[in-house]
Specification:
The chain has three helices and five strands. Strands 1-5-4-3-2 form a five-stranded mixed beta sheet. Strand 2 and strand 3 form a beta hairpin.
């Protein structure tokens, strides 16, 4: 199993998404966090299942929300760089 490392930027992006969904409907932000945790679990178990989007970057698509997690595999670590809304551009998604 891989060790999951979530960068501060990704945490901030997830927090912003959570807050936005909570403003739309109470409890929706919590559902977003459940989906986020599910993605973390899926990546941690099998990060190689997810296709590369550029160089060594990969993404996992949320099942219920229009978001992706952008990550990279380095030896036995999976580094999450972004929690990204799918309407934004790939260039911004890959900017570190």
């Amino acid at each position: 199993m891989y060790q999951l490392i979530v960068k501060p930027r990704a945490i901030e992006m997830a927090k912003e998404a959570y807050e936005w969904y909570e403003e739309q409907q109470i409890g929706l932000g919590d559902l977003f966090l459940v989906e986020l945790e599910n993605c973390y679990d899926r990546i941690e178990a099998s990060p190689l299942l997810y296709a590369r989007i550029k160089k060594n970057f990969r993404q996992i698509i949320f099942r219920t929300f229009p978001y992706v997690l952008v990550f990279e595999i380095l030896k036995d670590e999976v580094i999450i760089y972004a929690v990204f809304h799918t309407s934004r551009s790939l260039r911004k998604k890959l900017r570190k």
